[in-house]
Specification:
The chain is mainly α. Helix content is 87%, strand content 0%. It is elongated. The termini are far apart.
Length: 199
């Protein structure tokens, strides 16, 4: 019993010391390093803000494209599509600066404390040196090209494997929504979703 009490006291003391160490104020040098790292990450924060603006716009464009193909007469599709595209572009162009400004404003207060808590001053020095290094800058310049190459290769290789699954899913969603299924090309077998709809 005495051993358990001693162990509990030791554990409690260790936890109290850890909490005190975690809540101890950071040095001005550490705070300066945190601010520097957050500033170095501003391009990534800007990209994140742009992505937040573009994501719903892209989803809306995709949904509009589907409706254009199924509900709008062919002779009106191009004009309506261009008008929707212009409106979506305007939304993104107007929303992106707002999001970037807000992200720049709240970023340091949101990201800074996490960085300050999780990294030692020595680690922050190493991180800042890496972020400022020519190798990292070169890597950041090459990263979009690498990502694009990977995406193109992945779509080329996996696309034929996923297209039938995507078409089957589209048919099932159409049936569930009560939208007429896409008719197969002439000479092709009827789509499975059409059979399910007639049951």
């Amino acid at each position: 019993m005495k051993k358990l009490i001693a162990l509990a006291l030791l554990t409690g003391t260790a936890l109290a010391q850890a909490q005190t160490a975690a809540s101890a104020p950071s040095s001005p040098a550490k705070k300066e390093l945190v601010a520097k790292i957050v500033a170095l990450q501003q391009p990534a924060i800007d990209n994140l803000a742009r992505g937040i603006a573009e994501r719903p716009a892209a989803q809306m464009m995709q949904a509009a494209g589907n409706v254009l193909q199924t509900k709008v007469p062919p002779e009106k599709r191009e004009a309506i599509g261009k008008a929707i595209e212009a409106d979506v572009k305007k939304y993104v162009d107007e929303s992106t600066p707002i999001l970037k400004e807000r992200a720049a404003k709240i970023g340091p207060a949101t990201v800074g404390p996490i960085i300050e808590e999780r990294f030692s001053e020595d680690e922050l020095k190493q991180l800042a040196a890496w972020l400022e290094s020519p190798v990292n800058k070169k890597y950041q310049q090459v990263a979009p090209e690498m990502q694009q190459a990977l995406v193109q290769k992945l779509v080329a290789e996996a696309g034929p494997l996923l297209d039938p699954k995507l078409k089957a899913l589209e048919q099932k969603v159409r049936v569930a929504l009560g939208v007429p299924p896409v008719q197969p090309a002439s000479g092709a077998a009827p789509a499975p979703a059409k059979k399910a709809a007639s049951k």
